[in-house]
Hints:
The structure is a single chain. The chain is an alpha+beta fold. It is 38% helix and 21% strand. The strands form two sheets. Strands 1-2 form a two-stranded antiparallel sheet. Strands 3-4 form a two-stranded antiparallel sheet. The radius of gyration is 21 Å and the shape is elongated.
Amino acid sequence: MSKQRKSIIKFLFIIFTASIFLTACSDSVKAIEKNVSLSVKEDTISPTGLTLVMKNNSFNSYMYGEDYSLRKEIDGTWTDLPMIVD
């Protein structure tokens, strides 16, 4: 087998493997979107903050940290809201 043919086969294998990996990641994100929700607790909205409730309706464990941002849909486009630091 020629070097050029081996290179083509190697390239196709890498593309195939990457596409399978990326498809699996996409499915994982969709599963999280269906099973985990984030809502605002009633009567907690004020000019200085609000209380968010994260609900996990799956048997999986998810971790979270401080890297949240709030977004608002404006004319069909999601826009980050500014962070207010006390």
